[in-house]
Amino acid sequence: MICPVCKDAMIVVEYHNIELDYCNSCKGVWFDTGELELLLESHGIEETKTFLDGILNSQEAVSSEKQRNCPICGRKMKKTAIGGQTEILIDICHDEHGLWFDGGEVTQLLRHLAGKHPPERDSREQLISFLEEVFEAPQ
Ligand SMILES: [Zn+2]
Ligand SMILES: [Zn+2]
User: Fold this and answer.
1) Edge to edge, what strands does the sheet with 98-101 contain?
2) 14-68: pLDDT as tens digits
3) CB-facing half-sphere around the CA of 56: CA atoms within 13 A
4) Which ligand is nearest to the CA of 91?
5) How far is the CA of 120 from the centre of ligand 1 (A)?
6) Of the bound ligands, which one is closest to the alpha carbon of residue 29?
7) What's phi and psi for 112, nearest 5 deg?
């Protein structure tokens, strides 16, 4: 699959049977819709379905960030803002092929969710450190 930002080929990263596509150049991550749900669920983050539905059905955010195309169907994706104070701006395919996170945004999202749903700290912290290792490792 090709990165929607820099058009480089992405690499597939497998974690607990969840496959995600990762761009080594811009550190962005592509999740198929079901894969993000599995990732959140497998780490004790509750109300995943409601949360995802909320994102998928949310209004398009106004942003100066460049529009990106879905790496699966090639159509323009919509931008959606998640979170309160630290706003995370992600790109979603209108056909729900998946979600695009710029470098660091997955970690921001997990921290946001972790704050909302405090229990099961250990597994969540493991996940966060895993993601930091994979996605934000210094070169
Ligand atoms: Zn890229
Ligand atoms: Zn698509």
Assistant:
1) 11-15, 18-22, 29-32, 98-101, 88-92, 78-82
2) 877 888 999 999 999 999 988 888 877 876 777 778 878 888 888 888 888 889 9
3) 18
4) 2
5) 32
6) 1
7) -60, -50
